[in-house]
Design brief:
Shape: globular
Strand content: under 5%
Oligomer: single chain
Order of helices and strands: HHHHHHHHHHHHHHHH
Structural class: mainly alpha
Length: 387
């Protein structure tokens, strides 16, 4: 591919993929390990929720340090701290340590750098703006691929080997991938070395109109996953949850690669397509057909990639170059918060209204994101390329 013709791009991409794969492994691995050893899904869910909350607080600060001091100088020690947190979690679970040690250990993994944001920052540094659409589409496809394969690999390791295998393998992949990624220093954006205030307007202020849209988009993902798992379980097909959900990620991955070869569309058009696509699983669930639901999730997944590509491109264009990692981390934090809210909301809907009705949540969240796109386009400020 012409995208990888520049020296060093293949190397940092290989490290990026290795380090990114555990992002889809850690949550599943922690739940299976804690629930298997302690016999409590409530405890497992609370521990992982704490880790997500800690990540939302810590990730923007880690990204700010990356912008100021450079990717290699910050990302490697931050990754080591996160890996030690994972190892501590394994040890505490294994030795039946008090429950609070599980929360503290998993919270330490919040220092994990946003590898996707750092990779996008490298493409932005290396490529002219006219060529960045293809790179951003590839990055979105890589996200989907890792979130598709990660849970499957984690579940396999935890069941086929031993309960801690998923967490240990994820920690090893994260550290190895980050070392490979940061070793390619020639492709790294230069560190600013300046205080954050001197690098341009705060990404939080600049991206505020977009963060609500990203929150709603995250809610689409979180509610769709919980609704699908619950619906398949209600049909007595709980064992098919992994493969069926993988279809949604596969559709997004394929669409991301294809979209990268086409002329980009406006974010609002992409959100309109997403809103229409999110009605399909709801309609398919009402029929009780596994085949129709699987096909609907595949099509729904294909509609998500263009939205994420467009949203991340807007994040990049609205963020001062010296604070790009911070801006990307804020965007990812908003998406993660949306996923958590969507998951919780779908769980409540399943308990009160049933699994079919829960599919109304991702459809509603997509419509909310579409409505918010009008505000986004009106109030967000695009930073000129040379600013």
């Amino acid at each position: 591919m012409r995208l990888f013709a520049r020296p060093g791009t293949r190397g940092f991409t290989a490290g990026n993929l290795l380090a990114r794969l555990p992002m889809g492994m850690f949550g599943v691995s922690a739940v299976m390990m804690i629930a298997g050893q302690r016999g409590s899904y409530a405890l497992a869910g609370a521990v992982t929720a704490t880790g997500l909350a800690a990540t939302a607080l810590v990730a923007p600060w880690t990204a700010r340090l990356v912008d100021r001091h450079g990717q290699a100088r910050v990302a490697v020690p931050a990754t080591v701290i996160a890996v030690l947190g994972s190892l501590s979690l394994v040890l505490c679970v294994r030795t039946q340590a008090p429950a609070w040690t599980l929360f503290a250990s998993y919270a330490a993994t919040a220092t994990t750098p946003n590898i996707g944001g750092m990779s996008r920052a490298r493409w932005t540094h290396l490529l002219p703006r006219s060529e960045q659409h293809t790179a951003m589409s590839f990055e979105q496809a890589a996200d989907e691929l890792c979130f598709m394969l990660g849970p499957v690999l984690a579940a396999f390791l935890c069941t086929a080997a031993f309960p801690e295998a998923g967490t240990l393998a994820g920690a090893a992949l994260l550290l190895t991938g980050m070392l490979v990624f940061t070793a390619h220093r020639a492709t790294e954006p230069p560190a600013t070395g300046a205080p954050a205030a001197a690098l341009g307007p705060s990404p939080l202020r600049a991206l505020l109109p977009l963060l609500g849209l990203l929150l709603a988009t995250g809610a689409v993902f979180g509610s769709m996953e919980v609704a699908s798992i619950a619906h398949l379980a209600a049909l007595g097909l709980g064992g098919t949850s992994g493969p069926v959900l993988a279809l949604q990620a596969a559709g997004s991955c394929a669409a991301g690669l294809f979209y990268g070869t086409r002329r980009p569309r406006s974010l609002r058009i992409c959100l309109l397509a997403l809103s229409a696509a999110m009605a399909l699983p709801w309609a398919a669930a009402a029929t009780g057909s596994l085949a129709l639901l699987a096909g609907a999730l595949l099509l729904a997944g294909m509609a998500t990639a263009p939205v994420m590509v467009g949203a991340m491109a807007l994040v990049q264009r609205a963020t001062a170059p010296g604070r790009l990692n911070e801006g990307m981390s804020l965007a990812v934090t908003a998406i993660l918060a949306g996923i958590a809210a969507g998951s919780a909301g779908a769980g409540q809907a399943v308990d009160r209204l049933g699994s079919t009705a829960a599919y109304a949540l991702p459809a509603g969240a997509a419509l909310l994101a579409l409505a918010l796109s009008a505000t986004t386009s009106r109030f967000i400020r695009i930073v000129p390329a040379g600013e």
